[in-house]
Amino acid sequence: MRIIETSTAPNPRRLRVFLAEKGITVPFEQRDLMTGDLKSDAFTRLNPMQRVPVLVLDDGTAISESVAICRYFEELHPEPPLFGAGPLERAMVEMWQRRVELGFFAHVAHAFRHLHPKMAPLEVPQVAAWGEANMAKALEALATIDRHLAGSRYLAGERFTIPDITLLVAIDFMKPARLARPPELGHVERWYREVSSRPSAAA
Known about the structure:
Layout: E1 2-5, H1 10-22, E2 28-30, H2 41-46, E3 54-56, E4 62-64, H3 66-76, H4 86-115, H5 128-149, H6 162-173, H7 186-196
Parallel strand pairs: 1-2
Antiparallel strand pairs: 1-3, 3-4
Helix pairs in contact: 1-3, 1-6, 4-5, 4-6, 5-7
């Protein structure tokens, strides 16, 4: 079993934080997405989407998409329950995971891919107007999250779960996306101080 990743990319980091919370150790292999490693025939056979991370099992089965890999490890190692425990908590975790991933993280990623000069060779064509639009959408979504965190310790309640990991990674990804975190979002700041101090955040 091994995980193929690019250590500087946000989705591999999301998986590393998840594994650290679980106390799971898996060997990692590095690929450089900036030099075309992910477009090789060998890697494309593992993941035709040419994205990292990819979990390669001992029998050669390849699982891509970071949350899918996290779900695989959750089934093998259910404690702590990072996808929730019981019907209600699992539903709340799924709701907030989708809200953060599709409503915030995706906008930050689009802003990065369409506005950062280093992404020009990979994002063809770069559309600056689309990047700018996504910056605004990301900030709107973060304000909505701030209002929710006014009454909740973590996104899905009193337990740290995978949407908190996704939000942590997405907020940290704002820096390379050149998107400033609004200082007036005090509930996000309170939440961020807590989750970024967890040992897993350094994974």
